[in-house]
Amino acid sequence: MCLEVTLFLPRGEKSKASEKGVSEASGLHVNKYRTDDGREAFHLSQGGECSCDLLPSKFSWKNPNWELVPERLPQLAAAVAKVASQSKAFSFRARWLGPDRPDPSSREVGLKALLSIIRANAIGNGVEYVVGAA
Ligand SMILES: [Zn+2]
After folding, report:
1. How many C-beta neighbours within 10 Å does residue 121 have?
2. In angstroms, what is the span from residue 96 Cα to ligand 1's centroid?
3. C-alpha of residue 1 to centroid of ligand 1, in Å
4. 88 alpha carbon to ligand 1 midpoint, in Å?
5. What is the mean pLDDT of residues 86-105?
6. Starting at the edge strand that comes first in sequence, how are the strands of the sheet with 90-97 ordered?
7. Burial 82-109 (b: 16+ CB within 10 A, else e)
8. Strand ranges (E), the chain
9. Do residues 103 and 65 make contact, with C-beta atoms less than 8 angstroms apart?
């Protein structure tokens, strides 16, 4: 079972940010793809596979918030800021793919608030943070 950390564009929108641009801004491995429901997405990880490599060796997927490796937090914030510089509306989510996870939810936030949450290592488990909702 895996953690997946992903930035999503609203359906029908395209980000001018490139995989390479977000990767260079953050130092993370970035995979830009299209979701099954047609949204453009940037998947973030350290090594290019699942996002489990953002987690310390000991973690729980049942907690309300993720505790990620502290060194990865400024990198995630940089990736979010890079996407935000090209798109007013987007969302960010760290979701566990497996059983026993909290119910998915979504929360509207400002960009500054989202960056603070990331830097404080308090990213909600399964929470989709929606920035710039109309
Ligand atoms: Zn994994």
Report:
1. 15
2. 9
3. 6
4. 30
5. 92
6. 29-34, 40-45, 2-8, 90-97, 127-131, 105-109
7. bbbeebeebbbbbbbeeeeebeeeeeeb
8. 2-8, 29-34, 40-45, 90-97, 105-109, 127-131
9. no
Q: What is the pTM of this model?
A: 0.95
Tokens 């939810």 belong to residue: 105
Minimum mean pLDDT range among 3-12, 75-84, 92-101: 92-101
Distance from residue 2's CA to the centre of ligand 1 (Å): 4
Distance CA 103, CA 14 (A): 28
- Give the Å distance between the CA of 49 and the centre of ligand 1: 7
> Which backbone phi and psi does 13 adopt, to 5 degrees?
-100, 150
Kindly report the average pLDDT of the chain as a whole number. Answer: 95
Question: Bridge partners of 96?
Answer: 3
3-state helix, strand, coil in the chain (%, to 5): 30, 30, 40
